[in-house]
Amino acid sequence: EVQLVESGGGLIQPGGSLKLSCAASGFSVTDFYTSWVRQAPEKGLEWVSVIYVGGTTYYADSVKGRFTISRDNSKNTVYLQMSNLRVDDTAVYYCARVPRSHWHHDLWGRGTLVSVSS
Amino acid sequence: QSVLTQPPSVSGAPGQRVTISCTGSNSDIGAGLDVNWYQQLPGTAPKLVIYGNNKRPSGVPDRFSGSRSGTSASLAITGLQAEDEADYYCQSYDSILIGYVFGTGTKVTVL
Q: For residues A10, A3, B40 and B94, what is the CA-based torsion angle, rounded to 10 degrees?
């Protein structure tokens, strides 16, 4: 089955770190771009980061310098390392697939909840 | 990060036609970059319903259609059904900020 499964969310104190995982099955993550998109409670979608096929990465200004996206081809998994977390990072984090040379997210995971609170 | 502007809500009776607007800028939609649309049912992940401005993924009913003009785009739902009640988001790419941008979201209510 073609799917993405996120894991690693949880409750963390402000200033802490957390690493999210996005495991792909049914396709290779090296054949697609992978984005992380988040949604704060009762809010809209916010793009966070993307890793391209060649390994180039980009970030939203709100997370630049604090979050790092990476990929383990042998595990067919994409990661989001989050550091210096803030209360306003609280959200459901989705990973999503982008077909090469396109701009749309055609496959989404179910998401993992990150709660930043003291 | 720039955000695309959508109306907070639209509504219509079953069978009617509703449209959702999405307004961007010269660095995203106005730069000729594709607009995509997602449907999000309560408690679920977003689902792609329109890509490349006006293309429907396999399995999406032809009641859904998209268009783009200048710095704006729109999603139309004809023959509105109860199952269409959801939040809808447009999305494009910002060529200056080098990143994807989402719309503010529109809640569609079926009366």
A: 90
